[in-house]
Amino acid sequence: MNHGTRTESFQDIIRGDKPVLVDFYADWCGPCKMQAPTLKQLADRIGDKLRILKIDIDRSRAAAQQYQIQSVPTLILFKEGKIIWRQSGVQPLQRLEAMVKPYAG
Questions:
Q1: pLDDT digits (tens, 9 = 90+) for 28-52
Q2: Is 33 a residue of the active site?
Q3: Residue 50 is part of a domain; what is its CATH number?
Q4: Fewer CB under 10 Å: which end of the chain, C or N?
């Protein structure tokens, strides 16, 4: 498996004009499973103005280390490669929507 290519494509995605909400999660994490449907609802409401990526910290250790993920779920909003917002723990839909709206045009 070539991790270099995956990292480059992740970097390309987060450097784009479109804001990207990254969900760092793990399969063994109960709260992460609770966050997943909320992210789907957010995607349904915001549409294609926002990209949502899920990064499994056990499969993508380099990304988890790069962003110093200490606990899951951790959500990070990127815009043009910069971290706009970061929060650990399960986030309610209203909070996520209010946070991404100013960046998702």
A1: 999 999 999 999 999 999 999 999 9
A2: no
A3: 3.40.30.10
A4: N
